[in-house]
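Teaching note: in complex prediction, the entire set of molecules is handled at once rather than each chain in isolation. The prompt given to students was simply: 'Predict the structure of this complex.' The entities are:
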Amino acid sequence: MTAAPESVTTTDDASDASAVPDTTRTSLLRFATAGSVDDGKSTLVGRLLHDTKSILADAYEAVERVSRERGSEEVDLALLTDGLRAEREQGITIDVAYRYFSTPRRTFILADCPGHVQYTRNTVTGASTADALVVLIDARYGVVEQTKRHLAVAALLRVPHVIVAVNKIDLLDYAQGPYRSIAQHVQSHAESLGLPNVITVPVSALNGDNVATRSESTPWYEGPTVLEILETVPSIDQGADEFAAAHRHGVAHPTAADAEAAASGWRFPVQLVLRPQDAAVAEEFREYRGYAGQVAEGTVRVGDEVVVQPSGKRTTVAGIDTATGPLEAAHTGQSVAIRLADEIDIARGDLLSSAEDATSASKKFHAHVAWLTDRPLRVRDRVLVQHGSATVQAMVASIDGILDISLPGGTLDSSIKPGHELLLNDIGVVTLQLAQPLAVEDYGKHRRTGAFCLVDPQDGNTLAAGTARAHVPGTGEDTYVSI
Amino acid sequence: MTDQTTAPARLSTLDSLEAEGIHIIREAVGTARKPVLLFSGGKDSVVVLHLATKAFWPGKVPFELLHVDTGHNFDEVLEFRDRTVERLGLRLQVAKVQDYIDDGRLRERPDGTRNPLQTVPLLDGIAEHKYDVVFGGARRDEEKARAKERVVSLRDEFGAWDPRNQRPELWNLYNPRHLPGQHVRVFPLSNWTELDVWRYIERENIELPSLYYAHERDVFQRDGMWLTPHHSVRVRDTDQIVKRTVRYRTVGDASCTGAVESPAITVSDVIAEVASTRITERGATRADDRLSEAAMEDRKKEGYF
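The expected output is the structure of the full assembly:
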């Protein structure tokens, strides 16, 4: 062994402090990529990592070495995202891989969703936490069935921003015509799906055109690069939903103030009741009673009127606590403890909500369900519904249809074909009957409180991703909204 | 049009990661019968413990700590471990690799490295104490096998991880359900990078073992790493012992954890160094990950952290 021990070496621009992202100030964006290997997705991801200088020397050298071993003269950036040995052996990607990179403006969590096997399962998983989804299209083939499926998933999960990267434009000699017609096709399809914020970008991941740097080969394109879009769009934590609401209310380019004004109420699922008693860190907290959770949506303020679900009881916010001191207000995404003015029986799984737009709990609701497991879902099947921190027993009351994305010009509602069971990768419309009432809301309006999973009551496996549409109109507490 | 990324002024990256980590810890404890945190005194487990103190404030952390002691640990780290447990009023369980070697259940490896030997005492400890939720400080950016790990990861009766058969993890709805004999590993720092961890240590003023900062030490080079003379390392006649100013980027088994030459004596020095470093954390300092390209993948399948 003759190699000298590693000392920590620095890159050329290391002395430039501005190149070091200050994560105490910059914000976080979670995004997912969808597309197949053939679309050049791995190359695009490799290009983003490479051009943002996120590749460390030993990782890059390993890729250089493997590229050489495979007889390639150029460094194959797709290898940067190479995963498990099982995947390399089979030449496929079997699961969502998470990658991390940053620029001086923002830090990114990338959920890299493989396109081949179990593509709906992977895309749904990646898109469920995404502030933005990057969909890859091969410019030679345009919008294909998988593109439509990815856009349908984005619409179903209400991903706030969709970026369609029309890739391999180098193979079409950077011609404007084919890109324009694909972009038009994407936009009309997105419109029918009700996807508001779809941006198309002509790129060559291989050569780096319009990925992180503007291309000189596309003088006809004046829009932003993929990275510029990712660096500037608001995340959910930064009010993406409020910006979208302002947009829906007719403000073309909403400002932060417009977004604040468009914000509706707040939601706070209770994870734990904090009653330290003998385990208090100090004597003064022995009798403390607070409700621990993460703000799912909106801004909670001390003094706000509260409705507790499913009991429907009312009180007010007496205090908002953190280990480092009390707060006057807590925003979407913050983990805090809330104290209430009145002693009410509240347990893990209950939902605190602002009073002015409070929902009610229901024992029956309609939902879209993305079925992610091998065995089929049938009517009368017993499942568990996991919603926020609550889990209740449920039964499939009916299967009302299956989404057929091949129907031309279809919306999510009109593209439903009849069906009596859901198979792996199907997206269906179902009605669920619950054993206990849950405050499930319309996912279209309330992302966190509209989302749920189905779980197998026997082996505990996760079966499906669900987005609630509406309660079933019926009698009494069951009625609160119609679609 | 205003700059939408800065307004409305809300959460920074660190704020978001902290809130997510606290949410994960609370969620796992909300469903657990008997949770435990794997605590080595290393920076990642220290940060998880710090998040836990915030998650349950004004109550104490409501679970035990478990340390798998290779017998090759640095004294400074053990001392730090015990002091931390004492300060927070917690209970520590220690599973000792040395006990297994003494009674013949495990055999010393030819290369003297004990990191791979931790798996059996770890799994026995989990079974003996009937832990059902096991917190760890692993991060997805450490290694490519980890990049596919779930936040809540199911382990079978043998502690094994099956990368092809993982549950989809949707929104922030974590599924910790498991059958008797199985358990789940929970990784609250899944989405943190090494730089995030250091930024957080700086922001929260979190104490770490002194090994993480530059100090003068007797070292010799082996396999391209600086090792330190320690009762766990056989120093050969040919090894040239020299004094260097070094620090450790990870603190584990002294026989396979290398130091890096570094002048970084403060947290902000370390941050500047980490931000500009060109060698990944494990690649630079962990001999056991160099065994093969899929070394970590193999150990994880066998039930390793």
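Point out the following to students. The longest strand of chain B covers residues 215-222. The two ends of chain B are 48 Å apart (CA to CA).
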